[in-house]
Inverse folding.
């Protein structure tokens, strides 16, 4: 096996491992499986407890392994009260070990990607100037350092989208529950338990809200914590509506119905906005990828005929 084949095998294994890791990360929580475990009773609850215990043990082992590495990228002090901590909550990463994993990933990627480049350069004997090599090393180090930030931002955006799209359906469930005679706290808890098949993220947030209310936290504080944890504009408006309805004693069912209709209109407008952007997004792929291939297929035979017949004639041939 020569060096080029070895490098290709290593690149293939790295890409396959990264793809498998991302797939397992994105599928770490299955809404349907959670619902089945809730219905299954004590046995399912025992399995869930075992899974949570195993997850906690895994996190503890990871923190113990990468803790010293994470200190190289972690801020010295005060980051727990910064916006980065809020972004972890908005991404759904509530365990205390995730910041350690995050900063360790920044350090390992910032150091590992330049090292892989140097290894690849040494195995393939790639000849390049010192300035070019230094530029590549700096670019790879910067990419590795900021890649976890981009992944975290993507997770936050995805979670916000899921919560915002499922909130109108949850409001409809709350409206039905309130009109059926349930209190607002019980209606939110019931809507949270039923919305799990639609959005596990919103189910988790409403479950935390119900837990805070059971612990004796004031409703206004619990609702504002919900808006802070999600970071969704629709949730913030929903919280403001509930706080005002609680203060002024207005009809909660009617307020929920109006809020749900408003959010449903906003969701439809967002969908229409995305649909209107499709032609513009398709413009660049059409120009740079589809049109050149189409012109090659249509004009290729004609250009070959011109080259074979017309050019020799103009050049004085028979």
């Amino acid at each position: 096996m020569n060096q080029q084949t070895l490098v290709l095998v290593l690149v293939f294994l790295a890409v396959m491992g990264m793809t498998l890791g991302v797939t397992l990360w994105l599928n770490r929580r299955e809404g349907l499986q959670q619902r089945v475990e809730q219905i299954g009773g004590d046995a399912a609850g025992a399995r869930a407890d075992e899974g949570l215990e195993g997850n906690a043990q895994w996190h503890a082992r990871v923190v113990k392994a990468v803790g010293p590495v994470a200190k190289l990228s972690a801020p010295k002090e005060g980051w727990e009260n910064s916006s980065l901590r809020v972004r972890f909550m908005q991404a759904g990463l509530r365990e205390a070990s995730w910041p350690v994993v995050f900063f360790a990933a920044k350090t390992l990627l910032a150091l590992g990607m330049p090292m892989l480049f140097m290894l690849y350069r040494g195995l393939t004997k790639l000849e390049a100037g010192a300035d070019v090599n230094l530029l590549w090393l700096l670019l790879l180090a910067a990419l590795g350092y900021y890649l976890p930030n981009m992944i975290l931002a993507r997770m936050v955006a995805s979670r916000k989208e899921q919560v915002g799209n499922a909130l109108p359906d949850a409001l409809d469930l709350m409206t039905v529950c309130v009109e059926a005679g349930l209190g607002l706290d019980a209606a939110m808890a019931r809507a949270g338990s039923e919305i799990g098949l639609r959005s596990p993220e919103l189910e988790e947030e409403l479950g935390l809200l119900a837990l805070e209310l059971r612990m004796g936290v004031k409703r206004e504080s619990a609702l504002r914590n919900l808006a802070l944890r999600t970071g969704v504009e629709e949730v913030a408006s929903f919280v403001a509506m509930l706080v005002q309805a609680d203060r002024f004693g207005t009809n909660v069912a009617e307020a929920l119905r109006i809020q749900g209709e408003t959010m449903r209109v906003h969701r439809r407008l967002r969908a229409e906005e995305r649909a209107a952007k499709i032609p513009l997004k398709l413009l660049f792929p059409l120009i740079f990828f589809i049109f050149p291939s189409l012109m090659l297929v249509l004009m290729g035979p004609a250009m070959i005929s011109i080259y074979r017949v017309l050019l020799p004639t103009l050049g004085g041939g028979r």
Summary: The longest helix spans residues 252-314. The chain has two domains: 32-162, 163-269. The CA atoms of residues 159 and 184 lie 25 Å apart. DSSP finds eleven helices and no strands in the chain.
